Amino acid sequence: MLPEQALAAGRWVKLICGASNQDLAAIEDLCGIYTLAGVDCIDLAADGAVVAAARRGMAWALERGAPPPWLMLSLSDGADPHFRKAWFDPERCPPGCPRPCQRVCPALAIGTSAGVFEERCYGCGRCLPVCPWGLIEERDHQLAPPAVAPLLRALQPQAVEIHTRPGRATAFAERLAQVKASGLALERLAVSCGLEPATAEHDPGLGPIRPERLAEELWQRFALLRRNGFKPLWQLDGRPMSGDVGAGTARAAVLLLERILAMAPPGPIQLAGGTNGLTLALCQGLAKRSGRPRGGAAGVAFGGVARRRLQPHLLKAQRRQTRLLDDRELVEVALKDARALVTPWRTEDGGHL
Ligand code: SF4
Ligand code: SF4
Questions:
Q1: What is the pTM of this model?
Q2: Tens digit of each residue's pLDDT (9 = 90 or more) over 18-63
Q3: Domains recognised in the chain with CATH numbers
Q4: Nearest CA residue ID for atom 6, ligand 1
Q5: Residue 330 in contact with residue 337, Cβ under 8 Å?
């Protein structure tokens, strides 16, 4: 099934590698395994080295008969946790600190005595509040406007995603113009948005966001996409950067879908933010209430949960000093774990849950 057909059938699955994740070895392995597991799209940081690593992983899977997924590059129209990295100066850490920052980091981006390994940090933010001395800062990691068009032309993605927030229509239009200037004929222009307001700096009068306001903002984005000849794909970000795998985080995106579906502009809606292995069952519950297949969801994106499933195998590969994709035993177990997440969405009845 081609990606467009998967969207139409409500069976689209996207792997999110992380808009600021630059861990090249892990990205190559993740992309190889999840391409072979059947994802329709891989969402990556807009970075040449990251795309090259992803393409190496995808090529490995294509050699084994997998169809090529779309390559989607993520941009943002303003401050966004997906586009930040943590930073601290390890020289300032008091001796004897029990290093809670290292313990909470899901990406193993903080070493036993070093600071943050920048390429591994994907900005989840868990380390930020745990330092008893407040030494950890967040640093923005965005592309400068003049860099967007040439980079997209060089990297040739099939899709681009712009992370936006209510209150940032003007900034969105500017980012969109930079994408348009690349001249690329994209399959889809994805818009990622949730109920989080823009910062006061963008819209000082903005209160808490209601679904009606979000729908209004999506209609504004829709008008811009149409005017510029882009086909939309709406990514509802239920709980951005939650990194959790529980029912609570999965419910946030499905609840948002339920509240916004009747008001949303045309185009497929895909869930993200806290999505996990429970998301499909929740969509099936919504399908019963709404009478719409999969509750109206065209598909799902898996980020933290997809990475976490493969983490033990990636670590084993690291210890064996090999690429996971070159270790037959690890490929077998990693593929089984990846398929357990992807296959239920790809099958008509949702597979066995
Ligand atoms: S906890 Fe999150 S933000 Fe902090 S270093 Fe690890 S990945 Fe980066
Ligand atoms: S918790 Fe703070 S002081 Fe301790 S190692 Fe981490 S950054 Fe340094």
A1: 0.87
A2: 888 888 999 999 999 999 999 999 999 999 999 999 999 999 999 9
A3: 3-75+158-346 (3.20.20), 79-141 (3.30.70.20)
A4: 105
A5: no
